[in-house]
Design brief:
467 residues; 14 helices; disordered N terminus; binds S-adenosyl-L-homocysteine; binds iron/sulfur cluster; binds FE3-S4 cluster
């Protein structure tokens, strides 16, 4: 016992440390969990402050200009730390360096970056760290050139994302499970298909095994991830599809919830809606990005659905699941959007009544068709997004009000921000609820009576545990 404690203590001191910066969507959050698993397998431990790190990884996003600028700003800042600590290894991975020419520009502008990997080869990080360290050791002996890796290959069928090394999950009681990589849709504004490659589905067995493992480990919510989960199975050519996957997951034993994102409206089938409605475990909650309310803009965006199709999906969903929470993404300021087109967006938002909406100002992405179109002034985009946000805030609040007085099953997910006597979690429909509780409640289901609502948040009191 004593010896163990001693050895453990020494390992703690000798252990090298890692720090990962994560930008972008849930896919990146999850891939950072995989990177953490790989680094921990190599004997690195996580540190709370990047100043203590031996390796700093930037897992980047390039969906909008702001996302890129934030990552680049922070990569610039690390220069100071690298000066104080020349042994530091700096890695930039993910979507940003996967864009045409960006790896080269990082090579030139940030000479202290040692490793650059893309989106489909992050598992190479383990070997690349060894090569960098080996080359530095050699440098001390002779005037060798130091080793730097700039590898962002992306053949359509190439995938070197480690699914064997245990993922170091960071979002208990939720576990992210990826079901499909890449995107084939080429919406005219979007960089994702260029940086994430073509769609590649994981096998149904491999997804089911991972979900089972998570449930056995005590995770209570599984969120299936993909740029377009509704395309799941299309590339497997064995009859597998998303509805069948949902059906098999729902049949697994245990009490847990299932959510998924993101659904493309053009591919949301009746079979998927039927599975959602019939299932115990799949939440009545759907993220269904609409992007715009004008048929002309939807066409120019290459979304391949129109208002009518979108509204008919909403009708179907609500007729099968009256309490469903539907959230969306909306973009304003697409190059061809006129004031009238924007009013169509406001009108459809009023009509659908989303429980919540993520709103974005269109940002031209180099290499996409929309970036070549004539752009509209930023001031117009800003003015439009403020009107849209004001409208959605009103609707969000009105929907929140409808919850007060009701009792809902809530999975306790975390302590409320800056509190140790309040916890928060979500209803099946995805609404955030804060209620009295302690950290022991995290991962448990409760019936919560809603006593108050404030914009997107609800407040309540426990009515009892759910067995
Ligand atoms: N695959 C998902 C979305 C991925 S990106 C889907 O198809 O719905 C998340 C959101 O970012 C998109 O829904 C869109 O609203 C927004 N987005 C994508 N490209 C953008 C751009 N160039 N400028 C501004 N917002 C963008
Ligand atoms: Fe981008 Fe469209 Fe693919 Fe979503 S579906 S990732 S918006 S190209
Ligand atoms: Fe960003 Fe890449 Fe996700 S561009 S939004 S991190 S797929």
């Amino acid at each position: 016992m004593h010896i163990c404690a001693h050895t453990h203590g020494r390992n703690q001191i000798d252990m090298k440390k890692y720090f990962i910066h994560t930008y972008g969507c849930q896919m990146n959050v999850h891939e950072s969990e995989k990177l953490a698993g790989i680094l921990s397998n190599k004997g690195y431990s996580k540190c709370a402050n990047e100043n203590d790190a031996d390796i700093v990884v930037y897992n980047t996003c390039c969906i909008r200009d702001t996302a890129e600028r934030r990552a680049l700003g922070n990569i610039g800042v690390i220069k100071g730390l690298k000066k104080q600590k020349p042994s530091l290894v700096v890695a930039v991975v993910g979507c940003m360096p996967q864009q045409d020419g960006v790896a080269d520009s990082i090579r030139e502008k940030y000479p202290y970056v040692d490793i650059v990997l893309g989106t489909r080869n992050i598992a190479m990080i383990a070997d690349e760290i060894d090569k960098v360290l080996q080359s530095r050791a050699n440098l001390k002996k002779r005037s060798d050139k130091k080793y730097r890796c700039f590898n962002n290959v992306l053949p359509d069928d190439y995938l070197n994302i480690d699914e064997q090394t245990p993922t170091l999950r960071t979002s208990y009681p939720n576990a992210w499970v990826n079901i499909i990589y890449g995107c084939n849709n080429f919406c005219s504004y979007c960089i994702v298909p260029y940086v994430r490659g073509r769609e590649l589905s994981r096998s149904m067995n491999s997804v089911l095994d991972e979900v089972k493992r998570c449930v056995d480990e005590g995770y209570k919510e599984i969120t299936l991830l993909g740029q377009n989960v509704n395309s799941y199975g299309n590339d497997l050519s064995d009859g597998t599809n998303f509805a069948k996957l949902l059906h098999s997951i729902d049949a697994l034993p245990g009490k847990f919830r299932v959510r998924f994102m993101t659904s493309h409206p053009k591919d949301l089938t009746d079979a998927v809606i039927d599975e959602m409605a019939a299932s115990d475990k799949i939440c009545s909650n759907l993220h269904l990005p609409i992007q715009a309310g004008s048929d002309k803009v939807l066409r120019d965006m290459n979304r391949r659905y129109d208002r009518e199709k979108y509204l008919s999906l909403i009708d179907k969903l609500r007729s099968r699941m009256p309490d469903i929470g539907i959230t969306t993404d909306i973009m304003v300021g697409f190059p061809t959007e006129t004031e009238k087109d924007f009013c169509d967006t406001l009108e459809i938002v009023e009509r659908v009544r989303f429980s919540n909406a993520f709103t974005f100002i269109y940002s031209p992405r180099k290499g996409t068709p929309a970036a070549l179109m004539e752009q509209i002034p930023y001031s117009i985009k800003q003015e439009r997004i403020s009107r849209l946000i004001a409208l959605q805030n009103r609707i969000t609040k009105e929907i929140s009000d409808t919850y007060t007085g009701g009792v809902y099953e809530v999975l306790c997910e975390d302590l409320a921000p800056k509190r140790s006597d309040k916890v928060c979690g979500r209803t099946d429909s995805g609404r955030l609820v804060t209620f009295d509780g302690t950290k022991e409640d995290i991962g448990k289901f409760f019936n919560v009576k809603i006593t108050q609502s404030r914009s997107a948040s609800l407040f309540g009191t426990k009515e009892g545990d759910v067995l």
